[in-house]
Amino acid sequence: NKKAFVELLFWKSPAIVCEMTKGYSSLQEGEGTTRSRVPPWTPQEEQELRELYWKYKEVEGGDILAAILAHLPVPGRTRRQVVKQLVRM
């Protein structure tokens, strides 16, 4: 690739550097980015999240996210994942 030197001028993650050196289609699914490791939200989980949000939204002086995480039926979701999903919904 004659224009590869231009890519070296910008910051890269280790996964991108590996992809550059081994070829642009070298990354297999599930490697490199964290987005591919995050399990997608099922419609049932979204519905539970919606119900928990509306239930704990009006609680005074409490952390809504902490209450949602404590009552979420599927363990393993992080605070950041819950926030991103609530914003997306």
From TrEMBL:
<dbReference type="InterPro" id="IPR044998">
    <property type="entry name" value="Timeless"/>
</dbReference>
<dbReference type="GO" id="GO:0043111">
    <property type="term" value="P:replication fork arrest"/>
</dbReference>
<protein>
    <submittedName>
        <fullName>TIM protein</fullName>
    </submittedName>
</protein>
<dbReference type="GO" id="GO:0000076">
    <property type="term" value="P:DNA replication checkpoint signaling"/>
</dbReference>
<dbReference type="Pfam" id="PF26019">
    <property type="entry name" value="HTH_TIMELESS"/>
</dbReference>
<dbReference type="GO" id="GO:0006281">
    <property type="term" value="P:DNA repair"/>
</dbReference>
<dbReference type="GO" id="GO:0003677">
    <property type="term" value="F:DNA binding"/>
</dbReference>
<dbReference type="GO" id="GO:0031298">
    <property type="term" value="C:replication fork protection complex"/>
</dbReference>
